[in-house]
């Protein structure tokens, strides 16, 4: 793969497929700077929004300010997510210093009434932000763009192949895979990261007010203090997994140099800590770029192992993003295909062998110790092995009183506890449990024609005993953790 200077024609072509104007206002010629409001792509390397903002700053002859603001307004704000996010800001600050970029972190212990982005945007020529269909980003950006006095654009920094290439919802992995592979090599080309030519005047940073935090000097103790003072859900505590680009890079390197060679086999064993890359939380928060992961895998892993991993990391991840960008509501049963709608209508009144409420599910108090162990892993670590996650979702489909409640509860449990909660991958994975991206199977009670999965059969296929040894528990134990 070759390196191209920032501003090369192919970069502009990619940017055109990544760019979504959020209002019809003009770039303000009297604006003092270009503002990049960082929301979901929380890194300074391989960041398409930053590239766009840099190009525009140079074109306008203006300096650039990168703003990241953290408050309690995002869905399911908790000590777990807040800690992970703040850990990531340290790496951003250090990288900004190395690149000569102006980066500002503001922090509020509650919800902002007059966020710094509003004050800064009032003096900006242009505001650039991240294009992301979930986690409240699209709603925040859209409302902000309506109020802003200048042009606001959102840039897709999540996909490898620009998401604007696909103008409608793809039906399944088999329909998007050949389109992705056709453009993958070009989309993996590296682009230079650099600061704009014009420096930011010293007085601009003061506009954000007193909420600024020196991210580069944040210690673990200071992060814990800031989180403890915040109006977030403190019942969902921080976990051992650390946020940030350096942690993401270290995890990727260890995975590629170790377990990836046996990925096809190891991924089948939920007890294996290295049976998956465990990069989803870093990808969700943008602490590492999907293109960077793909390049590293292709450069350093055996081809067969690379293909097996990238089929999931690229094809399914990009399909999930396409689904959430093009579906009216990816968290609704209405997002499911017609054959599923007909199946659910026929079997809505079927008797369930077991029924549970949300509280019992949240505490992991079902009749099945494997399901309970999966819930325990989610609650205590912020993640769940992919194999168990499929069984976890499929089981709730048959235990909830209705299909709608099953979907609602799965989304709640995932978004509240998972570090990758509210991610397109999460919603696509949950909807797959209900038949999205799949085909009809033989009809049976409750399942209808949705693909069934059995917790009983899982004990034959997977090393469940070792998994239960790690995450199994007595009834009521999870509520005490």
Structural summary, described in words:
This protein is α/β, with parallel strands linked by helices and 481 residues long. It has 2 domains: 1-192 and 217-326, Serine Threonine Protein Phosphatase 5, Tetratricopeptide repeat (Alpha Horseshoe), CATH 1.25.40; 333-480, DNA Cyclobutane Dipyrimidine Photolyase, subunit A, domain 3 (Orthogonal Bundle). The chain has 20 helices and 9 strands. The protein has a 7-stranded mixed β-sheet with strand order 2-7-6-3-4-5-9, sandwiched between helices. Strands 1-8 form a two-stranded parallel ribbon. α5 links the parallel β6 (124-130) and β7. The protein is globular and about 65 Å long. The termini are far apart.
Keywords for this entry:
globular, 9 strands, 481 residues, 2 domains, Serine Threonine Protein Phosphatase 5, Tetratricopeptide repeat, DNA Cyclobutane Dipyrimidine Photolyase, subunit A, domain 3, alpha/beta, disordered N terminus, 7-stranded mixed β-sheet, single chain
Q: What can be said about this structure in brief?
A:
The chain is α/β, with parallel strands linked by helices. The protein has helices at residues 9-18, 48-60, 79-99, 116-121, 137-147, 173-187, 220-228, 245-257, 263-266, 280-284, 290-300, 303-326, 338-347, 358-362, 369-381, 386-399, 403-417, 424-433, 455-461, 464-471; strands at 3-4, 19-21, 33-38, 64-70, 103-107, 124-130, 151-155, 190-191, 212-213. 47% of the residues lie in helices and 8% in strands.
